[in-house]
Description:
Blueprint: H1 12-33, H2 39-45, H3 50-68, H4 71-78, H5 80-100, H6 104-118, H7 121-132, H8 138-166, H9 171-174, H10 176-190, H11 204-227, H12 233-253, H13 269-299, H14 304-328, H15 334-353, H16 361-388, H17 395-433, H18 441-444, H19 446-451, H20 457-490
Helix pairs in contact: 1-7, 1-8, 1-10, 2-3, 3-6, 3-11, 4-5, 4-17, 5-6, 5-10, 7-8, 7-17, 8-14, 8-16, 11-12, 11-17, 13-14, 13-16, 13-17, 13-20, 14-16, 15-16, 15-20, 17-20
Amino acid sequence: MTTAPATLPAGPRRMLLTVCAMSATIMQALDTTIANVALPYMQGSLSASLDQVNWVLTSYIVAAAIMTAPIGWVSDRFGRKKLFIVCVAGFTVASVLCGLAQSIEQMVLFRLLQGMFGASLVPLSQAVMLDAYPAEERGQAMAIWGVGVMLGPIMGPTLGAWLTDNYSWHWVFLINLPVGILTVIGLTIFMDETDLKSGMKFDWFGFAALAAGIGSLQLMLDRGEQVGWFTSSEIIAEAIVSAAGFYFFFAHSLTTDRPFVRFDIFKDRNFVSGCLFMVVIGMVLFSTMALVTPFMQNVLGYPIMTSGLLLASRGFGTLFSMIVVGRLLKIVEARWLILTGLLITAATLSVMVGFTDNTTARSIVVTSVFQGVGLGLVFVPLSTVAFASLPGHLRTDGASILTLLRNIGSSIGISVVIANLTSGTTRMHAYLSEYITPFNHALQMPDVAAVLNMTTDAGRAMMDAIVSQQAVIIAYANDYKLLMWLTLAAIPLVLIIRSVRVKPSANEPMHAMD
Length: 514
């Protein structure tokens, strides 16, 4: 095996490798959300119940979560290039099989395969980008890489809606075929293999315990809202299995000579701070997406394509900040950029607390753009800081752990805000209904009574619709406020980030390419 030189000149080969790594990242990031809007169409086409069709999402999430953790070991044992190519090819084939599925059972099976192969695409692409660029250019490299990670989930619903409306839900998956083929060819030509560690043994017990813990946690978070959380024996059982899995994993890992996850990565202070912030980013980014889209459709009455286009405005803000932040990192410390991003994100969430059914599209676009700027200012410096002092041989492990924590954070965040939205709507409806009485002077005003005549069925139905809408708006506002306080609570964590000035090291190996 050949090892690439320590310092890589900027040139066509590195640019082409960057394109391949980015295409893999965007494919995986898009497929995290692109299938959501096509679920109703799949349900009818595959003759599935609502509960069954939701497994199209759940199976992918669970498989990806379980298979994220062993990426570091597999990469070291068999080589990063082989793993990357196999996973891109497997993801592409699984995508085609999803597009050709004829039953819900086939769809769930193929989505499991897609999640298993797709789990490694983001961390491997990040590791490749970190190795391909010298230390002084990694801020800009992480900005380029972050575009795919951040824009994929934002653009997914829009692209999915357009493909489903103009063609069919099958193309939500088939669109990966040409991208996957070109990516495999590019990686084969432009990427060099890393050194293999053939003597490594696999920690099966550690993997099984961690897989049980992560898989059960993901199932609990995904299914909780549908089955009534801890009133359901299924959720209780999944919580017990998850707790037992994590307990055995940590107990085993701390007492064995060769743990499944190398805990050396957590000795790096900046990496630990990156992990903490990555959980927050996962919660805020994906939870806000989970709230904004149904708010625009159900409260403001926008069609799905309009909602997707308005949501995409956040992507333009993210793109702008990621273009700028790579240069800013050379003159401003990363922790101050993270602080600025958190403050901007918290400010936009404060504005969203005031969203009502009269909120204009212009207000949504302006708020979304600034929110995208804030998230970009956090994400790129965070990705740079987390790996600034982490040894090169631990980068793949570190990238997989960061991806895993971001996914877990997003699952927890989405589950919390959706549960809070549902219970908050019911609670606010009951609270507002207490004021609908014959003694309410506002309802006795002639102009109001002429429209909302509480002695008629039509009047009572109209009043119930108004109360329901107001209850939903208040529940959304409370969720946005919760995310705002979460973002503000993360600000003190900036203090644990060390001040680092990344300099290129002549002794640090670069494995990505010649």
